Amino acid sequence: MDAGFKHSGDPDAVMGEPSAEMDALRPIPRISIQAFCETEAVARPIERAGEDRRMAKAHLRVHMGGVRAAAEHYASAPTPNLVILESRYAPGELMTELEALAEVCDPGSKVVVIGHYNDVALYRDLIRNGISEYLVAPVALADIMGVISSLFVAPDAEPLGRSLAFVGAKGGVGSSTIAHNVSWAISKLFSSDVVVADLDLPFGTANINFDQDPAQGIAEAIFSADRMDDVFLDRLLSKCADHLSLLAAPSILDRTYDFDADAFSALIETAQRGSPIVTLDVPHVWNDWTRQVLARADEIVITATPDLANLRNAKNLVDTLKRLRPNDRAPRLVLNQLQIPKRPEISPQEFTDPLELEPLAMIDFDPAIFGAAANNGRMIAETDAKHPAAEAFSQIAHVLTGRGEAKRPKKTGLLGLKDLLRRK
Predict the structure, then answer these.
(1) CB 75 within 8 A of CB 101
(2) Are strands 238-241 and 244-247 parallel, antiparallel or unpaired?
């Protein structure tokens, strides 16, 4: 019963860094929700809930007017799956107003009341009369999302794995290499199952980087989406190492690959049900399906190299993804291929300032180690466990899995040496 009286006290409490409660929420199924509010302070977090990526399948509308407005509206319209009502009435008056609503409310609809009285007797009366939950204002986004989830997501449902989307600000910046090395690091460091999905069907490199040549992979998953379930997906996975599996891209050009916005949704959701970590190696293209994949991922890592085109593209990506994901943390940033000889570069500070991001890692250009690893189908840590890049991948793995905090990345290799000489 105490759950009915929990509130954050701050309607904007989850602005900026999302709460642990929000991170743990599963996507809401395809339901209809209508809210009738009396104050902007309650309407605002409900509207923000409608913008959340976990509510992508749900349809939510917010009206002003409270319980009486709801009763008038449903006198001539069917009620949705969930009605959220705000009321400033005292307990006795509220029960009277709800009686009028009950006469026009469909029996299958659930009702949540947001009141302004912290009253145990009122709570008991509401629950006894069929109200699904009672919250006390002020409410926050996490309160709204939590109560919707509790009503429409099965309580015994297994938690979904986290989806980590890696995308390059420009082609050739090493996003796939970082995605693969971080996935390998997660599987080794934490003995946690990881599925790597190479979404670049025509040109994907995951099969080369992991030295795999599977007969089936992600193409079969996408073109047979109606058959997608845990058993079918398991048949398509190629085992790369202990705790690490791959959905490889065909990497052939015998057809073109044009997909609808939701083409990858069933695959990703199925993979998340069976694995704690799902890595999405997203190609550097911008269309409906890549936009959808990035918008719905739990974490996004943008890889960039320090030049003007990368800065422009990274800025566009960060700004767009912040708009698409208003209740999630900003994308992560990795600066890669630093200190290429004779190449003019934007300094890390000048690059990150416009993005308002601290990089997760700054990785120096080292063609010998990266080339050797790629040609041999091995990860950097397998080639040289003490290489600074291996340490960077470990740090990224800790942060993305919630096992460590983002730290200011160390300057390694030539980058660190030049700073040291400059100080001397």
Answers:
(1) no
(2) antiparallel
Helix locations, 91-130, DSSP H:
91-102, 120-128
Using the predicted structure, report yes or no on whether residue 399 has a pLDDT greater than 50. yes
CA distances 202 to 161, 195, 250, 338, Å, are: 27, 20, 7, 28
Residue whose entry in the numeric block shows the structure tokens 């007797």: 121
What is 42-90 written as a DSSP string?
A: HHHHHHHHHTSGGGTT-EEEEEESHHHHHHHHHTSS---SEEEEEE---
Both ends of the chain: CA-CA distance in Å? 65
Least confident of 19-28, 170-179, 196-205: 19-28
CB of 269 closer than 8 Å to CB of 156: no
Look at the block and give the residue holding tokens 């990345």. 409
Task: Give per-residue pLDDT as tens, 9-50.
Answer: 444 443 345 667 787 788 899 999 999 999 999 999 999 999
Contacts of 116 (CB under 8 A, 6+ apart): 87, 88, 136, 137
Query: In angstroms, how far apart are the furthest CA atoms of the chain?
Result: 82
Measured from the Cβ of residue 110, the count of other Cβ atoms closer than 10 Å reads 21
3-state secondary structure 338-358: ECCCCCCCCCHHHHHCCCCCC
DSSP state of 17: S
Task: Find out whether 347 and 339 touch, Cβ atoms under 8 Å.
Answer: no
Residue 421: burial class (beta carbons within 10 Å; 0-12, 13-18, 19+) = exposed
In terms of Cβ atoms closer than 10 Å to its own Cβ (0-12, 13-18, 19+), residue 202 is middle
Rounded Cα–Cα distance for residues 291 and 12 (Å): 26
How many whole angstroms separate alpha carbon 60 and alpha carbon 202? Answer: 38
Whole-prediction pTM: 0.84
Q: How many other CB atoms are there within 10 angstroms of residue 411's CB atom?
A: 18
* b (16+ CB within 10 A) / e for 256-265: ebebeeebbb
Note whether 281 and 204 are within 8 A (CB): yes
Q: Which domains does the chain have, with CATH numbers?
A: 2-152 (3.40.50.2300), 162-423 (3.40.50.300)
Element (H, E) at 263: none
The Cα–Cα gap between 194 and 188 comes to 10
